[in-house]
Amino acid sequence: MPNGLIFLVLNEKDEELTAFSSQEGIAWAEHSLTLSLKLEWVQAIRRTLWHYIAVLSQKSAFRETRVDFFDLEKRINDQIDQFLNSFSSATQHIRMFLKQREVVEHLSVPIIPVSATVSVLPLIGAIYSYRIEIIEEKVLNNIADSRIQTLVIDLSV
To answer: What pLDDT sits at residue 3?
Structure first.
């Protein structure tokens, strides 16, 4: 994966770089990876990239002036920064989406107390596997917390 990023950076493939960073940001957000791991990952990418450039410069007649070198450094670091910005943005959007989805799905399982020991659970809408998991979790937690003895599940529309 870092090799793909290095290729995109060195070849200045802006659109592909942005798409790749969004894809990676989504994957990282879905797996809830930590910020410190992300920072270590970015450091490894930068080190690998500059090592690759150093190896290339030794293998060829890649003799640049200081101005050329600093121009290259600016272009490469700008590309990495572009990657990081898109990556970060995608990560934040997906995390926000997942959090909102969780809130909506928990709200879609209203357990309404009728008395101290009886509650009603009206279920409206499609019931799919992920929602069943939410319903099961919320019902079991609510039964344990409220000491419900009877739960009436209303499936009417």
So the answer is: 62
Dihedral (CA of 94, 99, 104, 108) sign? positive
Structure tokens given for 148: 């419900």
Q: Which residue has the tokens 């200081």?
A: 66
- Cα-Cα-Cα-Cα torsion 66, 71, 72, 77, nearest 10 degrees, comes to 120
* Alpha helix stretches (DSSP H) within 108-128: none
Those residues whose C-beta lies under 8 Å from the C-beta of residue 39, and which sit 6 or more positions away, are none
Chain mean pLDDT for the chain: 81
Largest Cα–Cα separation, the chain: 84
User: Rounded to 5 degrees, what are φ and ψ at 116?
Assistant: -65, -25
Amino acid, res. 6 = I
Helix (H) or strand (E) holding 102: helix 66-107
Between strands 118-122 and 150-154, the pairing is: parallel
pTM of the model: 0.51
The answer to whether the CB of 75 falls within 8 A of the CB of 12 is yes
The answer to whether 80 and 45 have CB atoms below 8 angstroms apart is yes
